[in-house]
Amino acid sequence: MQHNPYSAPAAAGPNVAPGGGLSTGSYEFNEYENATIAKMGARAWWWGLISAITGVIGLLMLGGVMAFLDELSAEGIEPHYVTLFVGALGPVVLTHLVIAFNYMGAGSSLKAVVNTQGNDVEHLMQSLRKLGTAFMVVSNINNAVVCTEVVGSLVNGTSGSLSCVLVEDVTGTCTDVAPGSINYGEFGPALVGPSAYYYWDASLDSHWPTHDPCGTNAPNHLMGITDPFGAVLLRPE
């Protein structure tokens, strides 16, 4: 078998103005446009805050469980159930905190569109980039993951590191594994950790798509599924 190509060519970047900033101009939105953008910013910020609160509550619950392990054992609760609870709640908490970070950041950028002069388009683009940094990959033959940009970007076609968490255990296999980066090879992008976790191979002549919950570029996905499917959700609701 051939090994999947993970050496990514240099990605083309956006048009850059002298000095390194994006060439966005100095357009100013009018009063009606500012009012609409302000509402969007407030809603994004509040959704982020709600996600942050639920994430913190989840963290407190996890901390409480870990702090009272002995008491829970004394009440007859088996450690196995505690492990299942922590394993199920942990990824959900992390996902809420990641979403909170992105939405509150996007809301702040949208507010800056209204509150500043001369940089409306640049602030708007920053907001859209923050809203678009999180994506979710779902499948009925591999585990579902939520990822946010660190260096790499699915949307912009950039190889590099990601922050990913497993949010749905579909396979019952390698539930402690999640991708850590995205690599763009000759035939398509791959979520990698440590090898291919998802590989969207577009070649008709060589290589293969990968759906490996263990991230080893091996056929560890669910077999015998009548209608295998998958989807990439670019913006979490």
Keywords:
237 residues; alpha+beta; 2 domains; disordered N terminus
Percent of residues in beta strands: 15-25%
Helical residues, percent: 25-40%
Largest sheet: 8 strands, antiparallel
- Counted up, domains total 2
Residue stretches low in confidence (pLDDT < 50, at least 5 long) are 1-25
What is the average per-residue confidence, as pLDDT, rounded to a whole number?
77
Lay out the secondary structure:
Blueprint (H helix, E strand, L loop, with lengths): L30 H37 L1 H6 L4 H37 L4 H12 L2 E6 L4 E6 L10 E9 L12 E5 L2 E5 L3 E4 L10 E2 L18 E4 L4
Antiparallel strand pairs: 1-2, 1-8, 2-3, 3-4, 4-5, 5-6, 6-7
Helix pairs in contact: 1-3, 3-4
Describe this structure in words.
This protein is of the alpha+beta class and 237 residues long. It folds into 2 domains: 26-131; 134-237, no CATH class. The protein has 4 helices and 8 strands; from the N terminus they run H-H-H-H-E-E-E-E-E-E-E-E. The chain has an 8-stranded antiparallel β-sheet. The radius of gyration is 21 Å and the shape is flat. 31% of the residues are buried.
Report a brief summary of the structure:
This protein has helices at residues 31-67, 69-74, 79-115, 120-131; strands spanning 134-139, 144-149, 160-168, 181-185, 188-192, 196-199, 210-211, 230-233.
